[in-house]
Amino acid sequence: MSLMEQPGPVTTRPGMLYPSASSLHYLVPISPSPEAAASPAPGSMFSWVSKDARRKKEPELFQTVAEGLRQLYAQKLLPLEEHYRFHEFHSPALEDADFDNKPMVLLVGQYSTGKTTFIRHLIEQDFPGMRIGPEPTTDSFIAVMHGPTEGVVPGNALVVDPRRPFRKLNAFGNAFLNRFMCAQLPNPVLDSISIIDTPGILSGEKQRISRGYDFAAVLEWFAERVDRIILLFDAHKLDISDEFSEVIKALKNHEDKIRVVLNKADQIETQQLMRVYGALMWSLGKIINTPEVVRVYIGSFWSHPLLIPDNRKLFEAEEQDLFKDIQSLPRNAALRKLNDLIKRARLAKVHAYIISSLKKEMPNVFGKESKKKELVNNLGEIYQKIEREHQISPGDFPSLRKMQELLQTQDFSKFQALKPKLLDTVDDMLANDIARLMVMVRQEESLMPSQAVKGGAFDGTMNGPFGHGYGEGAGEGIDDVEWVVGKDKPTYDEIFYTLSPVNGKITGANAKKEMVKSKLPNTVLGKIWKLADVDKDGLLDDEEFALANHLIKVKLEGHELPADLPPHLIPPSKRRHE
């Protein structure tokens, strides 16, 4: 009996894709042959076998994308990183926990912008170590994570726990670890995501230096590993301090993860809010050098009454959009990890070219120090040479200034020459293995709910009368006993009888003459016609015509049309027929 045919349950851990032997399994090898890639094995969706597995005659069984990524990293990318000392220059080696951890959300902002209050608002529960106040209260990095009981795990204990993705933070020393902790508690929101609270960013050189550790470097470490970075701004304090500017620049190459929240927006009038929003976009445009406009969510993210309720609908819509973005993180987590591994592999390749180029230029015996200084000063020319020789995009190169600083302390004689086999292995991973894992990513996504984060504030607007848009637009009159279109029907009837009805109905041509007066596009009017023609006879009676005009009004007021006609909008006479 083959491996795929063996009966009995398959041992799984929470979050694994396939819980039983009856489920789909993927046979995913590390180094596929073209024949194996072209011919799936019977009984499995995708099957290709690594060289080691072919020798053993036993295929690798990957049940999740995370497992496949872990194997790819360990067998193909890690050897290249170690050979060219990648971890001393850029980022520590990845561990198992980096592939298995839940999606993480990193909150960054100046002091008193509402970071801790934002977490309290999301999970609707106090967490250990939480302090809220107008002064700089949160002086630590706090990882808010799920746990069976409430408690705090201090930083030094946290970085030796192999189940947590924080072991490599040990490199930042005791000054940082004394300011790092994990607050764990049983909470349904934390079942799906973890949230990282950060110290408020200060202004002033003295306060910045007094931290005792490289704050921007720690944030950069987290930025590489989190799924979403939320920058919080206070509508009353838009100034971006030097440290905050440095932090935002440290988040370069992670712009796709960044979202901006303009918090406490209920405390200013609409006209002022427009000016504040414009000023924020101008300030961010000077720091975040991307052609795309960063997404800004405007609102007041806490559970207190709105001070100025004029923009209530705007705040509700913005909050709903932000919640949807956060709720999508578990569904997209595998794709994010895949994307981050690709970025890491591209950087590792460029790093290998840089180190091997420096090694090649070094003399064997005399003049090593002077040559080293010359090479560091001319690193920009080496970048250009590598770019031309290997057709590498300039955007793949590490920061020139940072690389020059790091090279000052390195012993160039210990650098390794170019080893094409290691680079070919990574190229094979990017060209073949990653492409095949993409298929698994889509399969995992299709099996997950679109809104995987539940509990806390996410449940408050899911259903019932306080759901976003409830009782508005096409939902107006959902709880009324009377047909909501009926109140305006006399007005619509007057128009109806001017359109030459025959046997109580008007033709599509006559209806069109009236409907196009709305100036809505034909694509929209065509959808309204399909919704209003309830009995599908190609004609409209007086109730259907009134319904068509009601839907036109809904669209003109800025609401979306429903995909299907809601039960409360079905004309009374048509309900009796159903």
Automatic annotation (TrEMBL):
SMART domains linked: EH
Record keywords, A-Z: Acetylation, ATP-binding, Calcium, Cell membrane, Cell projection, Cilium, Cilium biogenesis/degradation, Coiled coil, Endosome, Membrane, Metal-binding, Nucleotide-binding, Phosphoprotein, Protein transport, Transport
Location of this chain's protein in the cell: Cell projection, Cilium membrane; Early endosome membrane; Recycling endosome membrane
Pfam family, one: Dynamin_N
GO cellular component, one term: recycling endosome membrane
Record-annotated EH domain positions: 488-576
Presence of the UniProt keyword Phosphoprotein in the record: yes
Chain ranges of the Dynamin-type G domain: 99-330
Database matches in InterPro entries: DUF5600, Dynamin_N, EF-hand-dom_pair, EF_Hand_1_Ca_BS, EF_hand_dom, EH_dom, EHD_N, G_DYNAMIN_dom
Keyword Protein transport: yes
Domain EF-hand: 520-555
GO molecular function: ATP binding; calcium ion binding; GTP binding
CDD domains xref list: EH (cd00052), EHD (cd09913)
Topology in membrane: Peripheral membrane protein
SUPFAM superfamilies attached to this UniProt entry: EF-hand, P-loop containing nucleoside triphosphate hydrolases
PANTHER family, per the entry: EH DOMAIN, EH DOMAIN-CONTAINING PROTEIN 1
Subunit composition and interactions: Homooligomer, and heterooligomer with EHD2, EHD3 and EHD4, ATP-binding is required for heterooligomerization. Interacts (via EH domain) with MICALL1 (via NPF1 motif); the interaction is direct and recruits EHD1 to membranes. Interacts with RAB35; the interaction is indirect through MICALL1 and recruits EHD1 to membranes. Interacts (via EH domain) with PACSIN2 (via NPF motifs); regulates localization to tubular recycling endosome membranes. Interacts with PACSIN1. Interacts with RAB8A. Interacts with FER1L5 (via second C2 domain). Interacts with MYOF. Interacts with ZFYVE20.
Identification of the protein by name: EH domain-containing protein 1
